[in-house]
C-alpha cells in the first residue's frame, strides 16, 4: 500500500542519508522524496511516498524513523484529510502551429507555458500526482523531450473532518 | 572567534588546540580508559594526550579491531561507554566490525575517528574514507565535527546518546585541522536534543495489565534478555520470580540476569537452547519478554513460536516491540524500572500453575544437555564444565562465536549478572580475546577467562602484546579442535560432510606463541592433565594461555535446524 509519510528533521548534513539508508536497509521502496526548509531555522521537512506491505511494516517504519536522533516528528498522512501537491516541468516538441492547440489542452489543468523556443514548449503544472500523470498522457503525442518532477509534498488540512461527517457526505450512503 | 575576550581574560595562557578541547571534554565525562591506535589524522590528539596531565590511561592495541572489541568488553562489565580512538581511513574502517557488533548487542561506545583536513575533504586525500557514510547504518548516531567550538557539546551529546535509552555506538569524526588548529572559544551551553527522548519509566496501567495476565495464567514464562543487565534489574527479577514461582528462560545475551543454577531456571532457549525451555515457550500461555528483541536465533520459525501465548514485551526501544512477534501487552520502559514498578504493584501471582511447574521440572530432569564422554581425550563440553566447577561461576567469561560459544552458554552456569561477555547479534569471530582484555582493565580484581576457539583466536591474537605490556592476568583457554567447528558442524548436517575449508590443521604452536610474548603457555591433551592443572592455572597470578586439545567431531546439541520451529529439535536425548 502506498503511504505518505512526512518527517520534521534537524537540518544537519547526513540526515537525508540516514533516513533513506534506513529505508533501504529495511527494504521500503521509496517512490518520491521532497525536502525543503520550514519556517523554523535549522528545521526541514521531508515528504516521502513509500510503498509498504502492511500495517505492521508501516509501524516498523515510523518507529525506526522516530528512533533517529535528528528526526523530530514522523507523521503518516495517508488516512488524514490532506493537501498534497507536486510540481512538474514538461518540455515538449512544438512549433508555432500547434502552440494554441497545446494551450487549449493545458488550460483545464491550470498549467502554464513558461518557456517557448523555436521548436519546444515548456509547461509548468502543479497538483496531485494523478493530475500530473493525466496531463503528461495528453502531451505525450506531441513528443516529450524532458520531464522534471519534484515529488509529492503534503501536509494535513487545517480542519480534519470527523469520521461521521465523512460518512454523511459519502456517495455510497 | 572571540579573540579579545580570551586575550583579556588570560593573557599568559598558551593557546589550546581543538585536540586539547577534546581531551578536556573526555576528562569531563570521567573517561578512565581509551583504547586506540595512532595515525596521521589523529596525531594532534595523540600529542594533546601526551601533553595532558589528565588522569586516564590510553591502551595501545595492535589492531584497531582489538581496540574496539576491548572497549566493548569494558563497556559491558563496567556499564559505562567504552572509548575508542583511531585514525582516518584504514584506522576507522578497521573499527567497522566492532561498531556493528556494539550496535547489534546494544553496547555503549564513543568512537573517535580522525579525518583528513577539511581543506582536502572529498578529494580522495591520503587516508580519507567517508566514515560518516560507512558508519551511518551501524551507529546509534554519528557526528562530523565542523569546528572546535562545538567539540565539548558534541562529546557531551555523544556520551549521553551512547549510554542512555537503548545503548549503542556513537561515532565522532574529527578532521585533522580542527584538532590541530588553535581554539579560542568553545560552546559551553547545555545540550538540547529535541529528537531524542527515551522512555525510561513504564506506563503503570500496562504493568497492571501484565499483573492481571499473570494472575490468570496457568503456564506463565519469563524470558530474560540483556536489557535486564543494562537496566540493573536482576535483584528485582529474582524477588518477583521467587515470590510468585514463575519459571525463567533466557536468551544468549540475557544469561546471568537470573541465576543459572536456580531451580526455576530452565536454561537458555533458542537454536541451541534446552529442550525444556523451547517446549516451555511452545506451550506457555503467557510469555513475558523482558529486555530481549526476539532475535531469529531465539525464535526459530515464527509460525511456531509461542503460538498459544499472550505475549508481554518490555523493551526500552519501542521499535523492538511487535517487530518480530505480535505483542499483546507492550511496555516501553527501561527493564530495571519496569521490574521495579512491577514488583511494587504485584500482589498476587498465578493461581493455578503448579502442574506447569511440575511438568517443567520433570522435563529438566529428563532432557538435560548431553555429550559423548570418551575415557581419556577431552571434549569441549566437559572442559567447560570443569572450568565452571573450578571457578564456581565467579569468573567473567568472554567468547567468540561458534561451537565453543554455545557450549559455554550451555555448560557454564552464570549465576551473577555481568559475568558473560559474548558477541550475540553479529556473531563476531575474534571478539572474545580483546573483549577479555577490556573486561580485565575495567575490573582489575575479577578473574577473566577468554574462552575462544582456535579459529577466532587467530583473528585477533596479536593482542597478546597488550596482555604482556599491561601484565593483565587474563586466562586464555583455546578449545582447540583444529577446525572451524560450527562451520564444520553445518557442513556435516546440511552439506553432506563436504568440509569445504573448515578443517584448519596448520596452526602455530600456541604455547611457543605465548612464550614469545613472555606469557605462560600450556598445552593440555587429556582429561587427567586438565583436571590436575586447571585449578593452579586459573589461580596463577599472571596471564596464561591454555591450548586445550579437544575432539574435533563433537557437535552442538540439541539443535533447531534453520527454518524449523523451536519445538522441532534434533539431538534431544532423554536421560
TrEMBL record, chain A:
Keywords: Amino-acid biosynthesis, Branched-chain amino acid biosynthesis, Transferase
Keyword Amino-acid biosynthesis: yes
Annotated ACT domain residues: 4-79
Pfam families to which the protein is assigned, alphabetical: ACT_AHAS_ss, ALS_ss_C
Domain of life: Bacteria
Assembly with partners or alone: Dimer of large and small chains.
Function: Catalyzes the conversion of 2 pyruvate molecules into acetolactate in the first common step of the biosynthetic pathway of the branched-amino acids such as leucine, isoleucine, and valine.
Protein name: Acetolactate synthase small subunit
Gene: ilvN
From TrEMBL, chain B:
Cofactor note: Binds 1 thiamine pyrophosphate per subunit.
GO cellular component: acetolactate synthase complex
Keywords: Amino-acid biosynthesis, Branched-chain amino acid biosynthesis, FAD, Flavoprotein, Magnesium, Metal-binding, Thiamine pyrophosphate, Transferase
Co-factor(s): thiamine diphosphate; Mg(2+)
Residue runs in coiled coils: none
GO BP term, pick one: L-valine biosynthetic process
PANTHER family in the cross-refs: ACETOLACTATE SYNTHASE CATALYTIC SUBUNIT, MITOCHONDRIAL, THIAMINE PYROPHOSPHATE ENZYMES
Record protein name field: Acetolactate synthase
Organism: Alkalicoccus halolimnae
Amino acid at each position: 500500500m502506498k503511504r505518505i509519510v512526512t518527517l520534521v528533521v534537524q537540518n544537519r548534513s547526513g540526515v537525508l542519508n540516514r533516513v533513506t539508508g534506513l529505508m533501504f536497509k529495511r527494504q521500503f521502496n521509496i517512490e518520491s522524496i521532497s525536502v525543503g526548509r520550514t519556517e523554523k531555522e535549522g528545521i526541514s521537512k521531508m515528504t516521502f511516498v513509500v510503498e509498504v506491505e502492511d500495517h505492521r511494516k508501516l509501524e516498523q517504519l515510523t518507529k525506526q524513523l522516530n528512533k533517529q536522533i535528528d528526526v523530530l516528528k514522523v507523521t503518516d498522512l495517508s488516512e488524514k484529510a490532506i493537501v498534497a501537491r507536486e510540481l512538474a516541468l514538461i518540455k515538449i516538441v512544438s512549433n508555432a502551429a500547434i502552440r494554441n492547440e497545446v494551450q487549449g489542452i493545458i488550460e483545464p489543468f491550470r498549467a502554464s507555458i513558461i518557456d517557448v523556443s523555436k521548436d519546444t514548449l515548456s509547461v509548468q503544472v502543479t497538483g496531485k500526482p494523478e493530475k500530473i500523470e493525466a496531463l503528461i498522457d495528453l502531451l505525450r503525442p506531441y513528443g516529450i523531450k524532458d520531464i522534471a518532477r519534484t515529488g509529492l509534498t503534503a501536509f494535513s488540512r487545517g480542519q480534519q473532518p470527523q469520521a461521521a461527517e465523512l460518512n454523511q457526505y459519502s456517495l455510497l450512503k | 572567534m572571540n579573540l579579545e575576550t580570551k586575550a583579556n581574560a588570560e593573557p599568559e595562557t598558551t593557546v589550546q588546540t581543538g585536540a586539547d578541547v577534546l581531551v578536556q571534554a573526555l576528562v569531563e565525562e570521567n573517561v578512565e580508559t581509551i583504547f586506540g591506535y595512532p595515525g596521521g589524522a589523529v596525531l594532534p590528539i595523540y600529542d594533546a594526550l601526551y601533553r595532558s596531565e589528565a588522569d586516564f590511561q590510553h591502551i595501545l592495541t595492535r589492531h584497531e579491531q582489538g581496540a574496539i572489541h576491548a572497549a566493548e568488553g569494558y563497556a559491558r562489565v563496567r556499564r559505562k561507554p567504552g572509548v575508542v580512538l583511531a585514525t582516518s581511513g584504514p584506522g576507522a574502517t578497521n573499527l567497522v566490525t566492532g561498531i556493528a557488533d556494539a550496535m547489534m548487542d546494544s553496547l555503549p561506545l564513543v568512537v573517535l575517528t580522525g579525518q583528513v583536513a577539511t581543506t582536502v575533504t572529498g578529494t580522495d586525500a591520503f587516508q580519507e574514507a567517508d566514515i560518516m557514510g560507512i558508519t551511518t547504518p551501524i551507529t546509534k548516531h554519528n557526528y562530523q565535527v565542523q569546528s572546535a567550538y562545538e567539540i565539548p557539546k558534541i562529546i557531551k551529546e555523544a556520551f549521553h546518546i551512547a549510554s542512555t535509552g537503548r545503548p549503542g555506538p556513537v561515532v565522532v569524526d574529527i578532521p585533522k585541522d580542527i584538532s590541530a588548529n588553535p581554539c579560542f572559544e568553545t560552546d559551553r551551553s547545555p545540550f538540547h536534543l529535541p529528537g531524542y527522548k527515551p522512555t525510561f519509566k513504564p506506563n503503570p496501567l500496562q504493568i497492571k495489565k501484565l499483573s492481571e495476565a499473570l494472575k490468570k495464567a496457568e503456564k506463565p514464562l519469563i524470558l530474560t534478555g540483556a536489557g535486564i543487565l543494562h537496566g540493573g534489574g536482576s535483584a528485582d527479577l529474582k524477588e518477583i520470580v521467587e515470590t510468585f514461582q514463575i519459571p525463567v528462560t533466557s536468551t544468549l545475551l540475557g544469561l546471568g540476569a537470573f541465576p543459572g543454577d536456580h531451580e526455576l531456571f530452565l536454561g537458555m532457549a533458542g537454536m541451541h537452547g534446552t529442550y525444556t525451555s523451547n517446549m516451555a515457550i511452545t506451550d506457555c500461555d503467557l510469555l513475558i519478554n523482558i529486555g530481549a528483541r526476539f532475535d531469529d536465533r531465539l525464535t526459530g520459525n515464527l509460525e511456531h513460536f509461542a503460538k498459544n501465548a499472550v505475549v508481554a514485551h518490555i523493551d526500552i526501544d519501542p521499535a523492538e516491540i511487535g517487530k518480530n512477534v505480535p505483542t499483546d501487552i507492550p511496555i516501553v520502559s527501561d527493564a530495571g524500572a519496569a521490574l521495579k514498578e512491577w514488583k511494587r504493584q504485584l500482589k498476587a501471582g498465578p493461581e493455578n500453575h503448579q502442574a506447569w511447574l511440575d511438568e517443567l521440572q520433570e522435563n529438566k530432569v529428563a532432557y538435560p544437555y548431553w555429550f559423548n564422554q570418551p575415557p581419556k581425550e577431552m571434549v569441549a563440553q566437559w572442559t567447560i564444565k570443569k572450568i565452571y566447577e573450578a571457578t564456581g561461576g565467579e569468573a567473567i567469561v568472554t567468547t567468540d562465536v561458534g561451537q565453543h560459544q554455545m557450549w559455554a552458554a550451555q555448560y557454564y552456569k552464570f549465576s551473577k549478572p555481568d559475568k558473560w561477555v559474548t558477541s550475540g547479534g553479529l556473531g563476531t569471530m575474534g571478539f572474545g580475546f580483546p573483549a577479555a582484555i577490556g573486561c580485565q582493565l575495567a575490573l582489575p580484581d575479577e578473574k577473566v577467562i577468554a574462552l575462544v576457539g582456535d579459529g577466532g583466536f587467530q583473528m585477533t591474537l596479536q593482542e597478546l602484546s597488550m596482555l604482556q605490556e599491561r601484565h593483565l592476568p587474563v586466562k586464555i583457554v583455546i578449545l582447540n579442535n583444529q577446525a572451524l567447528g560450527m562451520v564444520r558442524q553445518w557442513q556435516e548436517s546440511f552439506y553432506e560432510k563436504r568440509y569445504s575449508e573448515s578443517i584448519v590443521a596448520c596452526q602455530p604452536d600456541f604455547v611457543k606463541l605465548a612464550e614469545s610474548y613472555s606469557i605462560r603457555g600450556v598445552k593440555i591433551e587429556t582429561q587427567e592433565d586438565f583436571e590436575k592443572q586447571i585449578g593452579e592455572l586459573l589461580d596463577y597470578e599472571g596471564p596464561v594461555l591454555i591450548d586445550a586439545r579437544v575432539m574435533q567431531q563433537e557437535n552442538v546439541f540439541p539443535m533447531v535446524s534453520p527454518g524449523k520451529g523451536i519445538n522441532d529439535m534434533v539431538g534431544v536425548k532423554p536421560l
